Structures are given as C-alpha cells and as structure tokens.
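=== RUN LOG ===
request id: a7f3
mode: sequence -> structure
chains: 1
length: 233
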Amino acid sequence: MSTLALVPARGGSKSIPLKNIKPLGGRPLIEWCLAAIAASGVVDRTVVSTDDERIAEIARAAGADVPFRRPAELAADTTPSVDVVEHALRWLEENEGATSELVLLVQPTEPFVRPDQIRHALTLLQEHGADSAITMVRVSRNSHPFHVREQNEGGWLQFAQPAEHAAHPTRQDDPPRWAFGNLYWFRRDAFLATRRLETNRHVGLEIDELTALDLNTPADWAVAEALLAVGAV
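=== RESULT ===
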C-alpha cells in the first residue's frame, strides 16, 4: 500500500524560539525524525508542512519534500493538528493528484522516535486490519486515572474516582492504561471521513517512554541533551 509521512513544523515556537531547527546533539531538531522516517524503509514519500523557509530548506536538505507553504492561519499556537493534516492531504490531492493510502504523522518535537517503531506500528495496523495505530507508553501510578485528584473552587482536593482509588491500593492492582507515544499511522480515507487521528478501529504499540519524550520547554530540551550525553536514547 502507498505510504506518506507528514511532518508538521511551524516556525513560530515561543517557549523555545526556532525550536524545530535548533541544534540538538549537533543537528537541527527536525532532522532527527526525518532520519528515522527515512531509515524505517516503509515510507514512500515524506512531506514537511511548514510556514517557515528556514525549516523548509533544512527539510529539503534532509531529503523531505516541501511542496507547499502552510498558510499563516494554520500556523498559530492553537491550530489543531487535525487541521494541519487535512490541509496537507487536500493540497496534495488537489494539486498533485496524490492520495497515499496510509499516512504516518510524526512531530519534530519527538526526536527519539525510532525506525523500528515506525515499522512495527505499521505492521500492527495492517495485521489487525485497523484504521489507525499509535505508539503508546504505560501510564505511571501517579498519573493513573484511578489515583489523580480534582480540585474544587474552594481549593479542596478529592480523588476523581474515589471508589477505584480505594479498590486499588498497590501499583500491582492498577489495570494498565496508556498515553500517546510518538507517532500515528492512519488510513487516509478514514481520517478524512472522521477528522480524527485515532480513527475508528485503532491499535497501539507499547514503547520505551524515553523515546516518547516531547520537547516543549527548555527543561524538556535539557532532558533530551542529558539523555544523549549518557547514550540513553
């Protein structure tokens, strides 16, 4: 089946200026995910959606295509990823007649995505006949829905699910729950019909949480540099 990778990379990051091309481990951030996609061997074409020519130049040098410039109204802090993905897919169809059957979405801010994760998540989708697949990480006890707390207007805390919290006193008692990891695969037609990245029948591949690190703050960046320094990723 034909495959397309989409990498959204806007230029207006505020927490870390020019984050997507800031050097991490000696190369621009966006190059990390582009290299993993290329090394996976399962993607026919990689397209970067950006509003910034500096990002576009680095993406092209890394082997990706940048066939359009993302409109400014789709490059704001609050722009949903779904809108960016839909714009890219519609543009490719309307201007090139390109309609890849399967789409991979990877964010540059998740630099430690691995080629084998891309391959295995795709295989999982195909083997199950699923409409979408993600990588996922197991939720820790502190973040487990049975043990998180709510705060009311008066500042008082209570467990969001007090009965479940009491019924699961140890970590071993907690039923497993998972959070998003570092990539999405989905069937193009299913996405366009529902406008959801995790659409219809979806499956998940559990991965090492270090490879799901998402760089959004200077503290996240410091963690990434530390992990690289000790060879942990």
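=== NOTES ===
The radius of gyration is 19 Å.
The first strand starts at residue 3 and ends at 8.
=== END ===
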